[in-house]
Amino acid sequence: MPRRPVAVFAIAPWAFGGVFPADLLARLRQLVDIDPTTTFTSFDGPAATAALAEAEILITGWGCPRIDAAVLSAAPRLRALVHAAGTVKAHVDPVVFESGVVVSSAAEANAVPVADYTIAMLVLGAKQVFSRARRYAAATAGTPPDWLAGDGTGLHHCTVGVVGASRIGRHVLRRLRRFDVEVLLYDPYVNAAEAARLGAEPVGLDDLCRRSHLVTVHAPALPETRHMLDARRLDLLPENAVVVNTARGSLIDTQALTRACATGRISAILDVTDPEPLPPGHPLLAMPNVLVTPHLAGAQGRELRRLGDFAVAEVDRLLNGAPLVGRVEPEHLPHIA
């Protein structure tokens, strides 16, 4: 019987059980030799050194140490890195690609719950659910109700501005087709024909801000995207507009957003912030028209399994010579989250 490839886990223990439940581990162990009782969050020490010396495949996830030249030197047999989480940007040094090691990420699988969260927040944000619920809870007997729906609430016939046709952005664009909304797209790398295929009108970012009732952000964190929604662009938003950010906190100027939301003119739903987390007592945390969630849009709880399922299938494809669905190329790094 031919020898199976040796694989090693490098993933935080808190995530391991959710990403790789027993049945997925059983499937994986049919493909590779791997110790399911050992997962590394540091490659220091004799146990890690011994494991790396035999490893042909690294199966990584949240908590994985950075894979750099030193790790490659300790892992002379390594030929693939399969990341059972989203972005590999913080974990994989460019030298990994230069060495010929194949890199794959489950970012496509992780994009699904983020897109679902985004759509849910667009629906709730368009109804002004969070501020209305707080007013409802604070109401006292005999006072006129101020939580009732206004003429400008609801997603129907809204204009939704999508900033970035990233992997998640495209999932959101596909989901928006189920709703009777006008969709605008700002992405300098997407031409008019592709935008039309995605069901959106391509526009500049200023125009998107002027026209959108709701803006959802799905761009990567790059020097050129830092504070792309600054004070000037936030001022372009129409009255009662809602900003949803599930991408990176640095894409929005936090001070400018705080000032804009404090007036009550716009609202915000933020799963990411800058800084993250916001310091205790930050004004955004207490505003009735702002919802801040603790970076939970990505895979959580039962959703973690989707990442492990993707990773096991990717290992199977790798060993059978099939194209990797989640393959990451070095030219992708500057443009991913």
UniProtKB/TrEMBL annotation:
Keyword Oxidoreductase in record: yes
Keywords annotated in UniProt: NAD, Oxidoreductase
SUPFAM superfamilies xrefs: Formate/glycerate dehydrogenase catalytic domain-like (SSF52283), NAD(P)-binding Rossmann-fold domains (SSF51735)
Domain D-isomer specific 2-hydroxyacid dehydrogenase NAD-binding: 147-297
GO molecular function, one term: NAD binding
Top-level division of the source organism's lineage: Bacteria
Short name of one Pfam family: 2-Hacid_dh_C
Chain segments annotated as transmembrane: none
Family, per entry: Belongs to the D-isomer specific 2-hydroxyacid dehydrogenase family.
Protein name: Phosphoglycerate dehydrogenase-like enzyme
